[in-house]
Amino acid sequence: MATIFSRIIAGEIPSYKVAENDKFYAFLDINPLAKGHTLVVPKREVDYIFDLDDDELAAMHVFAKSVALAIQQAFPCKKVGEAVIGLEVPHAHIHLIPIQKESDMIFSNPKLKLTNEEFVEVATAISQAWEGGDK
Ligand code: 5GP
């Protein structure tokens, strides 16, 4: 059975897309730790990120870098933190989170509750920065 992220990539389940190329898809985490919290996933369904081929893992990070630059442009922050957990959804994904301090990366922190309009605003700001950037 397809993972929830494959169903998102296929458009069967809606998502707030921020960037896409032929191999990877980036969209807002539905339970964000901060405005701009984004997930980067490979379109090929692989559970564990370290089961990706070397080339695919490298390309995923290059794609994630382009998304991180767009996040930082749209949501000024000290850095964009990167984390891989993957215990909830068995489809490899990188979390990109705008942070001001180390504790902004603690996954047990309370999540933001954004309205649909706010999610759309966040996704639009990042995707516009991404489309305007140098990929
Ligand atoms: P992890 O597998 O890295 O522990 O956590 C999975 C992440 O995916 C969580 O941060 C969760 O909020 C996010 N997530 C789970 N299901 C969905 C979904 O259907 N849509 C979106 N946008 N994010 C999801």
Descriptive overview:
The structure is a single chain. This protein has helices at residues 4-9, 54-74, 116-132; strands at 17-20, 24-28, 38-42, 79-83, 94-99. The radius of gyration is 14 Å and the shape is globular. The N and C termini lie far apart (33 Å). Strands 1-2-3-5-4 form a five-stranded antiparallel beta sheet. Helices cover 33% and strands 19% of the residues. It has 135 residues and is an alpha+beta fold. The protein has a single domain (4-128), classed as HIT family, subunit A (2-Layer Sandwich), CATH 3.30.428. The model has no long low-confidence stretch (mean pLDDT 96). Helix 2 crosses helix 3. The protein is built from three helices and five strands. Strand 1 and strand 2 (24-28) form a beta hairpin. Guanosine-5'-monophosphate is lined by residues 4, 15, 27-31, 39, 85-89.
The total number of structural domains is 1
- Pick out the low-confidence regions: none
What integer value in Å does the Rg equal?
14 Å
Q: What is the residue-averaged pLDDT?
A: 96
SS-derived structural category: alpha+beta
How does the overall form come out from the CA principal axes? globular
Hetero groups bound? Answer: guanosine-5'-monophosphate
Q: What is the end-to-end distance?
A: 33 Å
The ordered H/E elements are: HEEEHEEH
Strand fraction equals 15-25%
The CATH H-level superfamily is HIT-like
Task: Give the name of the CATH architecture.
Answer: 2-Layer Sandwich
* CATH class assignment: Alpha Beta
Largest sheet, spatial ordering of strands: 1-2-3-5-4
Active site: 93 (tele-amp-histidine intermediate)
InterPro entries: Histidine_triad_HIT, HIT-like, HIT-like_sf
GO molecular function, one term: catalytic activity
Domain HIT: 4-107
